[in-house]
Specification:
Elements: H1 6-14, E1 23-24, H2 30-40, E2 52-58, H3 60-75, H4 80-92, E3 95-101, H5 111-131, E4 135-139, H6 147-154, E5 161-171
Antiparallel strand pairs: 1-5, 2-3, 3-5, 4-5
């Protein structure tokens, strides 16, 4: 019988994202961000390709990105609601880690596995940040997927994409939990 880690199981079964709009100062220090990322990198990485990289944003960088999101939205002809949503996470953001999916050419490791590894890093950041006592929220929004924005904001190459933007700060008000999936409707047990 394997040895269980009840505290870890309980943490994983009860973890939840903290709404970024409810976060406040302080934010993790650079050393604490490194500690969070060190834990987050314990993800599947077939071929040890490290198909991801990070951009940590805070302070004046948040304001610059909010302005850039608004400028891109206006160029694209977006309405005021979409402009507000695009700049909103940066207007309210205090510290965020942008996870860049950066697949490497490899004959044995499909690109999809590398992209999924970047997604696993996003979840790893959420878990590591929350385990360290911080609030964390994985956000995207249209700026994360708009080429003009991501190339200007984060220096993406044509083969890179934003896997996620994970906001990390001090949690102030958790609020009610959202309904969770009914697992019985999602499992197909195949024993034969």
């Amino acid at each position: 019988m394997p040895t269980a880690n009840p505290a870890a199981v309980s943490f994983l079964q009860n973890r939840r994202s903290r709404p970024a709009k409810t976060m406040t100062l302080p934010v993790p220090s650079a050393d604490q961000v490194i500690e969070i990322l060190t834990g987050a990198l314990r993800v599947p990485d077939h071929g040890k390709l490290e198909p991801w990289r990070f951009v940590v944003i805070q302070g004046a960088a948040m304001a610059r990105l909010a302005d850039l999101a608004e400028a891109r939205a206006k160029v694209l002809g977006y309405d005021s609601e979409k402009i507000g949503k695009g700049r909103g996470q940066f207007d309210l953001g205090l510290l965020a880690v942008v996870v860049i999916s950066s697949p490497k050419p490899h004959e044995k490791v499909p690109q999809i596995e590398q992209v999924l590894s970047a997604g696993a890093v996003c979840l790893g950041i959420l878990n590591a940040a929350e385990a360290a006592g911080w609030g964390a929220n994985w956000l995207s929004g249209w700026p994360s997927h708009e080429r003009g924005f991501v190339e200007a904001a984060f220096g993406l190459t044509p083969k890179e994409t934003v896997a996620g933007i994970v906001h990390i700060a001090t949690q102030t008000n958790l609020g009610p939990d959202r309904p969770r999936p009914d697992l019985t409707k999602l499992i197909d047990w195949q024993n034969v």
